[in-house]
Amino acid sequence: MTSKELKALIVLLEDPDNEVFKVVSDRIIVQGPKIVSKLEKSWEECDNELMQERIENLIHTIQLQSTKTNLIKWVENGSQNLLEGAYLVASYQYPDLDLGQIEKAIETIKNAIWQEFNQTLTPLEKVKTLNHIIYGINNFSGNTTDFFSPDNHFINRVLENKKGGPVSLAIIYSCVAQKLGLPIYCVSLPRNFILAYVDRYTSSKEVEKTNGNILFYINPFNSGKVIGIREIENYLEQHNVEHKVEYFQPCSNRTTISQLIASLMIAFQKISQPQKVSDLQEFLNITNEQRAS
Known about the structure:
This protein is of the alpha+beta class. Helix content is 58%, strand content 9%.
């Protein structure tokens, strides 16, 4: 569709006839996210309330449908790329977001850490180096002053602001670590989210134990503090939560993204944006492990 054709369609959004609006809106929606910026510009230049409302609804519909479609593809393709999953969630709020820029930011952090690595470092020393670069040099931190801000859960905003929630910080930490070849994976706890450093050389018989293949755990929201199994057990006991093996073992990428979406839902509930919460519930229905693939 040419710019001239799009402009003509946008003008027709002023038509009070709902049937005309339906035909016009269908033609605009199929253009996808690439025309959102043009719709936003038209909204700014318009002084017709009906037209502005219709443009707002069109933008919302385009962003919602695009994110749902892409999340379904991500799940159907095996949800192998955790960073892509986080990017797709953020693209709902930021449709012009570029995955390449997100990947570049992660690569920059990885390269800084790589320069400090050598083959003699123990797993604990490697984590200490990660913590130094991520939290000490790059100044990432858990956002304790504005814990329920939606920005804590959009991967692009966390990379920009250097502040995030437990899930988003875990995603960044895990993605950086895995680019370095370190077996550090996300672990989903009730109302919390941490990381596990997996021992690649543990036998299958030892893995049958509660945490037999885990060397130690990492709290990304607390500057990468290293913790042990006892701390997790204490946490579960304090919250009257039954101990389950899944609370001590790495979770899937789908579970991680589901937890990211759930965190966003709580954030938008706190600031009374029910439409956002409703949209996010649709995303959660797609990524939830219980959903038939």
